[in-house]
Amino acid sequence: MAVRPIHNYPAPVLREVAQAVGEIDDEIRTLVEDMAETMYAANGVGLAANQIGILKRVFVIDIAADDEPSALTVFINPEIADAQGTQSWEEGCLSFPGATAEVKRAETVTVRATDAEGNSFELEADGLMAVALQHENDHLDGILMIDKVNAIKKHLIARKVEKALAEE
Ligand code: ZN
Protein backbone atom coordinates (compact mmCIF):
# COMPACT_ATOMS: atom_id res chain seq x y z
CA MET A 1 0.00 0.00 0.00
CA ALA A 2 1.13 3.48 -0.72
CA VAL A 3 -0.05 7.05 -0.44
CA ARG A 4 -0.13 8.48 -3.95
CA PRO A 5 0.17 12.15 -4.87
CA ILE A 6 -3.15 13.96 -5.38
CA HIS A 7 -3.56 16.13 -8.47
CA ASN A 8 -4.86 19.58 -7.66
CA TYR A 9 -7.11 21.87 -9.67
CA PRO A 10 -6.57 22.84 -12.49
CA ALA A 11 -4.65 19.67 -13.43
CA PRO A 12 -5.88 18.49 -16.88
CA VAL A 13 -6.29 14.88 -15.66
CA LEU A 14 -9.19 16.06 -13.49
CA ARG A 15 -11.05 16.90 -16.72
CA GLU A 16 -10.61 13.49 -18.32
CA VAL A 17 -13.37 10.89 -18.47
CA ALA A 18 -12.35 7.68 -16.67
CA GLN A 19 -12.71 4.31 -18.41
CA ALA A 20 -14.73 1.34 -17.15
CA VAL A 21 -12.82 -1.32 -15.21
CA GLY A 22 -12.76 -4.76 -16.81
CA GLU A 23 -11.52 -7.62 -14.66
CA ILE A 24 -10.96 -6.87 -10.98
CA ASP A 25 -7.38 -8.07 -10.70
CA ASP A 26 -4.43 -7.38 -8.40
CA GLU A 27 -3.76 -4.08 -10.16
CA ILE A 28 -7.27 -2.83 -9.34
CA ARG A 29 -7.09 -4.17 -5.77
CA THR A 30 -3.79 -2.35 -5.24
CA LEU A 31 -5.30 0.80 -6.73
CA VAL A 32 -8.24 0.58 -4.31
CA GLU A 33 -5.93 0.04 -1.30
CA ASP A 34 -3.75 2.97 -2.34
CA MET A 35 -6.77 5.19 -2.86
CA ALA A 36 -8.09 4.39 0.62
CA GLU A 37 -4.68 5.06 2.17
CA THR A 38 -4.33 8.30 0.20
CA MET A 39 -7.81 9.46 1.24
CA TYR A 40 -7.19 8.71 4.94
CA ALA A 41 -3.75 10.36 4.87
CA ALA A 42 -5.36 13.52 3.50
CA ASN A 43 -8.33 13.38 5.92
CA GLY A 44 -10.82 13.21 3.08
CA VAL A 45 -14.25 11.57 2.94
CA GLY A 46 -13.92 10.53 -0.70
CA LEU A 47 -11.39 10.10 -3.48
CA ALA A 48 -11.81 9.29 -7.17
CA ALA A 49 -9.11 7.60 -9.26
CA ASN A 50 -8.77 10.66 -11.53
CA GLN A 51 -7.47 12.58 -8.52
CA ILE A 52 -4.39 10.37 -8.37
CA GLY A 53 -4.02 10.43 -12.14
CA ILE A 54 -5.59 7.05 -12.90
CA LEU A 55 -8.39 7.13 -15.48
CA LYS A 56 -10.41 4.19 -14.19
CA ARG A 57 -13.98 4.28 -12.92
CA VAL A 58 -13.21 3.76 -9.23
CA PHE A 59 -13.86 5.84 -6.14
CA VAL A 60 -13.75 5.27 -2.40
CA ILE A 61 -15.84 6.92 0.32
CA ASP A 62 -15.70 6.88 4.11
CA ILE A 63 -17.93 9.46 5.77
CA ALA A 64 -17.44 8.08 9.31
CA ALA A 65 -16.54 10.76 11.85
CA ASP A 66 -13.10 10.67 13.52
CA ASP A 67 -14.52 9.03 16.67
CA GLU A 68 -16.43 6.37 14.72
CA PRO A 69 -15.03 3.13 13.29
CA SER A 70 -14.01 3.52 9.66
CA ALA A 71 -16.60 2.54 7.08
CA LEU A 72 -14.82 2.31 3.76
CA THR A 73 -16.99 1.69 0.71
CA VAL A 74 -15.40 0.94 -2.66
CA PHE A 75 -17.26 1.75 -5.88
CA ILE A 76 -16.05 0.25 -9.15
CA ASN A 77 -17.95 1.09 -12.37
CA PRO A 78 -20.61 2.99 -10.38
CA GLU A 79 -23.85 4.15 -11.94
CA ILE A 80 -26.40 6.46 -10.39
CA ALA A 81 -29.64 4.61 -11.06
CA ASP A 82 -31.98 7.06 -9.37
CA ALA A 83 -31.86 10.57 -7.88
CA GLN A 84 -34.61 12.37 -5.95
CA GLY A 85 -35.10 15.75 -4.28
CA THR A 86 -32.51 18.49 -3.71
CA GLN A 87 -30.11 19.51 -0.96
CA SER A 88 -27.21 21.94 -0.58
CA TRP A 89 -23.91 21.23 1.13
CA GLU A 90 -20.72 23.19 1.59
CA GLU A 91 -18.44 20.70 -0.15
CA GLY A 92 -14.72 20.22 0.06
CA CYS A 93 -12.50 18.31 -2.34
CA LEU A 94 -8.97 16.94 -1.90
CA SER A 95 -8.09 18.48 -5.29
CA PHE A 96 -9.15 21.92 -4.01
CA PRO A 97 -7.01 22.51 -0.90
CA GLY A 98 -8.16 25.48 1.15
CA ALA A 99 -11.48 25.89 -0.70
CA THR A 100 -15.11 24.85 -0.33
CA ALA A 101 -18.13 25.31 -2.59
CA GLU A 102 -21.83 25.28 -1.83
CA VAL A 103 -23.32 22.86 -4.32
CA LYS A 104 -26.92 21.86 -4.95
CA ARG A 105 -27.41 18.16 -5.57
CA ALA A 106 -30.02 15.42 -5.29
CA GLU A 107 -31.11 14.56 -1.74
CA THR A 108 -31.35 10.80 -2.26
CA VAL A 109 -29.50 8.67 -4.78
CA THR A 110 -29.42 5.00 -5.64
CA VAL A 111 -26.06 3.76 -6.88
CA ARG A 112 -25.16 0.44 -8.47
CA ALA A 113 -21.51 -0.57 -8.41
CA THR A 114 -19.05 -3.43 -7.96
CA ASP A 115 -16.91 -3.81 -4.84
CA ALA A 116 -13.22 -4.76 -4.61
CA GLU A 117 -14.15 -8.47 -4.37
CA GLY A 118 -16.07 -8.24 -7.65
CA ASN A 119 -19.55 -8.39 -6.10
CA SER A 120 -22.16 -6.05 -7.49
CA PHE A 121 -24.25 -4.12 -5.00
CA GLU A 122 -26.87 -1.41 -4.83
CA LEU A 123 -26.88 1.37 -2.26
CA GLU A 124 -29.48 3.99 -1.47
CA ALA A 125 -28.10 7.01 0.34
CA ASP A 126 -29.14 10.44 1.54
CA GLY A 127 -27.46 13.38 3.32
CA LEU A 128 -23.66 13.53 3.23
CA MET A 129 -23.34 10.05 1.71
CA ALA A 130 -25.56 11.07 -1.21
CA VAL A 131 -23.49 14.24 -1.67
CA ALA A 132 -20.22 12.30 -1.59
CA LEU A 133 -21.53 9.76 -4.10
CA GLN A 134 -22.56 12.46 -6.57
CA HIS A 135 -19.33 14.43 -6.05
CA GLU A 136 -17.09 11.38 -6.62
CA ASN A 137 -19.18 10.08 -9.51
CA ASP A 138 -18.80 13.49 -11.20
CA HIS A 139 -15.00 13.16 -10.93
CA LEU A 140 -15.14 10.05 -13.13
CA ASP A 141 -16.72 12.18 -15.86
CA GLY A 142 -14.26 15.05 -15.46
CA ILE A 143 -16.81 17.22 -13.64
CA LEU A 144 -15.69 19.24 -10.61
CA MET A 145 -17.54 21.06 -7.82
CA ILE A 146 -16.26 24.36 -9.26
CA ASP A 147 -18.46 23.70 -12.32
CA LYS A 148 -21.56 23.95 -10.13
CA VAL A 149 -21.06 27.51 -8.86
CA ASN A 150 -21.34 30.94 -10.51
CA ALA A 151 -18.44 32.75 -12.20
CA ILE A 152 -17.56 34.96 -9.21
CA LYS A 153 -17.38 32.01 -6.83
CA LYS A 154 -15.43 30.04 -9.40
CA HIS A 155 -12.82 32.78 -9.48
CA LEU A 156 -12.67 32.96 -5.66
CA ILE A 157 -12.24 29.19 -5.35
CA ALA A 158 -9.46 29.15 -7.95
CA ARG A 159 -7.65 31.94 -6.04
CA LYS A 160 -8.01 30.09 -2.71
CA VAL A 161 -6.51 26.94 -4.20
CA GLU A 162 -3.63 28.90 -5.73
CA LYS A 163 -2.96 30.53 -2.37
CA ALA A 164 -3.14 27.24 -0.43
CA LEU A 165 -0.73 25.57 -2.87
CA ALA A 166 1.67 28.53 -2.71
CA GLU A 167 1.74 28.22 1.10
CA GLU A 168 2.46 24.46 1.08
ZN1 ZN B 1 -13.48 15.94 -5.21
Please provide a written account of the structure.
This protein has 168 residues and is an alpha+beta fold. 28% of the residues lie in helices and 27% in strands. It contains 3 helices and 7 strands. It has helices spanning 26-41, 127-140, 151-167; strands at residues 46-48, 58-61, 73-84, 87-92, 100-105, 108-114, 120-126. The strands form 2 sheets. Strands 1-2-3-6-7 form a 5-stranded antiparallel β-sheet, with helices on both faces. The chain is globular and about 45 Å long. The relative contact order is 0.19. The model has no long low-confidence stretch (mean pLDDT 97). Bound molecules: zinc ion. The site of zinc ion (ZN) has 4 residues, from helix 2.
